[in-house]
Design a protein that fits this description.
The complex is a heterodimer of chains A (about 100) and B (about 450). Chain A contains two helices and five strands; from the N terminus they run ββαβββα. Chain A has about 100 residues and is α+β, with helices and mostly antiparallel strands. In chain A, a hairpin with a 2-residue loop joins β1 and β2. The radius of gyration of chain A is 12 Å and the shape is globular. Chain B is built from 17 helices and 19 strands. Helices cover about 35% and strands about 20% of the residues of chain B. The radius of gyration of chain B is 22 Å and the shape is globular. The chains are: A alpha+beta (about 100), B alpha/beta (about 450). The interface of A and B includes residues 34, 42, 49 and 53 of A.
């Protein structure tokens, strides 16, 4: 069975047991990274072990988290950090499997 | 504020932290063992996908970890395991703040003592273009293989120096995505004298990596460095040079690695005097990078020192195996992998990004250094180096090196990073709990199955 989560409202597949940063790393190839942060830096996987904060993303209901420390889960909704800081933060559950 | 009492908090659940937790629990004390990752195991034994476990971790290390885990299981009455739990800081009243990564809320614990076993992180030499997405540490690519069971997709170039770079190159090759090249700053094969002095397991491991690369004809280019990474329409264009000749590679991913550094930035300093507050020891690679085979011994040694300071007269003797031989092996490895050209920033162009978090360049720093006598604190507060989210982990060493190179003024890392918490950025909302303050013990019961 394939597993999916939502990145920028698009459905993408992940490998069970992997950290979210690696799902996004496969998805965001070719320079886009994980979107831009407020400081203008392009976010993306760098250290892979929670030391650089380069992989911050916004998880619906949880705010910004290091994606390399966050296991990918079915139905999880993920956005780049800037986009959600612009709007009101949401409190929906991460597990609503729509 | 509700706090929980526990004898000892151990931060970091790699070999060093688990060994320390076992020794302390075996003395009858209560331990809270926390790790920011969703499972114990640290850099080596973190969750490894079944398909590739045996390919990515040596057999002797797997056996050692299994033994440690069963020792830990026997102490389940004394050790509370908290995964996805990040240590944030120890305040002046001796209260430790930890953050639950799942609920994003802070919790407060009052320990008598703390062991920091937060491991190592990779030293990465800045090069023009290292801040582009697609450029990662080589270790991050290894974590990809371990967690997904497959190598990252696309063409990979590995560059930098050290045995771990070689290991990761071989692992990518075995899993079916051999790097287009491995660029090594040193000339390790010319150091036969040092190789001969290495213990057998090291020698065997290195030999297997080199033969894997040779068998698949993966170019291992020694005595060369990456000079420039540029973005193109297709991906990344990398210029490699050995000082005489340049070669170009078009790739999707660049994995950089220049050895390991103690992951101790911002941690409380060691303290073995109860009169000075909470006792603190550092263990494993966080104390000194001695590698995987030394980590559990180092954890036991640290526990021994701590228990002695807590008044256990025999602790140090019962817990203290020698670390001497590991120190010697690491010195030999450092000699084998010493770069042909020194890792200096001197020749890098001004526009090279130095601080990745705040996008500050080497030129910005050089401008500040025109004024002699500028302090590390000024560089931080006015130049914003070391101020960003990574708290100077990736730029700090280079900022201080350049300061020394240009102005001849050696400075200590603490002057730039400070020893003040938080170790990790944390939102005020999480700190105040926003009504989510919880008794830590109640929370663990819902978490420990993760
Ligand atoms: C990316 C990487 C890959 C490596 N791969 C290899 C390899 O393949 N082979 C090899 O021989 N050696 C490898 N090493 C070296 C190896 O890490 C060490 O020699 C060994 O694992 C050290 O054990 P340790 O217990 O000291 O630290 P680690 O095993 O690194 O454990 C440290 C733990 O602390 C946790 N931690 C860190 N900060 C916090 C915090 N603030 N709050 C809570 N928890 C925290 C981490 O999540 C981690 O689990 C690697 C190192 C790195 C950085
Ligand atoms: S990639 Fe560095 S913190 Fe996640």
């Amino acid at each position: 069975m394939k597993h999916f989560l939502y990145w920028r409202d698009r459905k993408i597949a992940f490998v069970p047991g992997e950290m979210l940063a690696y799902t996004l790393f496969r998805e965001c190839r070719g320079g886009a990274g994980f979107g831009k942060s407020l400081g203008g830096q392009t976010q993306g996987l760098f250290c892979g072990i929670g030391a650089c904060q380069g992989c911050l993303v916004t998880l619906e209901g949880r705010g910004s988290v290091e994606s390399c420390l966050t296991p990918a889960r079915d139905g999880m909704r993920v956005q780049p950090i800037q986009e959600l800081t612009d709007g009101p933060s949401t409190t929906e559950s991460c597990n609503d499997d729509s | 504020m509700m706090t929980v009492d526990v004898d000892v908090i151990v931060v970091g659940g790699g070999c060093a932290g688990v060994a320390a937790a076992c020794c302390i629990a075996e003395s009858g004390r209560s331990v809270m063992l926390c790790d920011q990752a969703p499972s114990l195991g640290g850099a080596i034994h973190r969750k490894v996908a079944e398909e590739c476990g045996a390919l990515l971790v040596s057999k002797d290390l797997i056996t050692g970890w299994r033994d440690l885990k069963s020792r830990l299981d026997q102490q389940s009455d004394h050790v509370e395991i908290r995964v996805s739990t990040i240590f944030v800081g120890l305040d002046s009243t001796g209260v430790a703040v930890i953050k639950d990564h799942i609920t994003n809320s802070a919790q407060y614990v009052a320990p008598k003592a703390m062991v920091f076993a937060t491991g190592a992180y990779e030293n990465i030499k800045p090069v023009p273009g290292w801040h582009y997405p697609g450029v990662t540490t080589a270790g991050a690519l290894q974590v990809h293989m371990k967690s997904a069971g497959t190598p990252p997709k696309g063409k990979v170039l590995l560059a930098g120096s050290g045995p771990l770079l070689l290991a990761i190159a071989a692992q990518l090759t075995v899993l079916g995505n051999a790097p287009v090249a491995v660029v090594e700053s040193a000339r390790p094969l010319l150091k036969s004298r040092h190789w001969l002095g290495l213990p057998l397991p090291f020698f065997r491991e290195a030999f297997s990596y080199v033969t894997t690369l040779w068998a698949r004809r993966v170019p291992w280019i020694c005595g060369a460095d990456v000079e420039l990474i540029e973005r193109t329409e297709k991906g990344l264009a990398v210029t490699v040079s050995n000082g005489k000749r340049e070669v170009n590679y078009d790739v999707d991913i660049v994995g950089l690695h220049n050895g390991l550094r103690e992951n101790n930035i911002g941690l409380p300093a060691e303290n073995l005097d109860p009169a000075d507050g909470v006792l603190v020891v550092h263990a494993g690679d966080c104390h000194a990078v001695l590698g995987a085979r030394a980590a559990s011994q180092s954890g036991s040694v640290a526990a021994g020192r701590l228990l002695t300071a807590m008044g256990d007269p025999h602790a140090e003797l019962s817990c203290s195996p020698a670390l001497e031989s590991h120190t010697q092996s690491q010195a030999k490895l450092a000699a084998i992998f010493s770069p042909v050209r020194p890792l200096s920033l001197e020749n890098l162009p001004d526009e090279t990004i130095l601080c990745r978090c705040e996008q500050k360049s080497i030129g910005d720093l050089r401008e500040m250094l025109v004024t002699r006598g500028v302090s590390a604190r000024e560089i931080k507060l006015n130049g914003r180096f070391g101020m960003g989210r990574c708290q100077g982990r990736f730029c700090g060493k280079w900022v201080l090196d350049l300061l020394d190179e240009i102005n001849g003024e050696p400075r200590k890392m603490e002057e730039l990073s400070g020893r003040r918490w938080p170790v990790r950025p944390i939102s005020i909302g999480s700190l105040t709990g926003l009504g989510q303050q919880q008794d830590v013990r109640k929370l663990t019961q819902t978490q420990s199955g993760d």
